[in-house]
Amino acid sequence: MADNDAVVKETKTKPASRYERGTRSYTMSRIRGKDTSIETLVRSYLFRRGLRFRKNDRRYPGHPDVVLPKYHAIVFVNGCFWHAHEGCPKRSIPKSNVEFWTAKLARNRERDARQQATLRDDGWNVIVVWECELGRAVREERLERLYGQIVGGGADVGTDAAGMDAVGTDAAGSAG
Ligand SMILES: [Zn+2]
């Protein structure tokens, strides 16, 4: 997964209001190039709803943001850029190094698909929450639905599943 490291600086960082600097999870998420605030948002909500979970469990493909063994549920909180959210306005290719970014983001997307398939094969209910689903106006509804998906076992692969069959499988060797 080290391929995210080199380009962390490229991410647009938001004001650090929602996470605690210096904590392990803060450091981990910086290393992974993810937006801590959206992960924290989801975790805080689930915790308030009484759910208990493991974070960034490295035993599982993709190091899921939230693992809930009791419900056999795994939640990924995905930034729309890094995970190439299909059809999403937040997903834009940088204007320089277009070829590099196109290939890289496609690889990220393929890797996500493989990892999620593996987890599903192992019996996990894999739920993806996208960054754009956590905007202020829509967040409450999404989080409410997420809770239902976890305790009720309803799977949700997000809003981009339709594009998956167009994804090639020739990058399988890069599964880190
Ligand atoms: Zn999105």
Automatic annotation (TrEMBL):
Region Disordered, residue ranges: 1-20
NCBIfam families the UniProt entry points to: vsr
Family listed: Belongs to the Vsr family.
Gene Ontology molecular function: endonuclease activity; hydrolase activity
Signal peptide range in chain numbering: none
Coiled coil segments of this chain: none
Highest classification ranks of the organism: Bacteria, Bacillati, Actinomycetota, Actinomycetes, Bifidobacteriales
Gene3D superfamilies for the chain: VSR Endonuclease (3.40.960.10)
Gene Ontology biological process terms in this record: mismatch repair
Claim: DNA damage is one of the keywords in the record: yes
UniProt keyword terms in alphabetical order: DNA damage, DNA repair, Endonuclease, Hydrolase, Nuclease
Protein name, UniProt field: DNA mismatch endonuclease vsr
Keyword DNA repair attached: yes
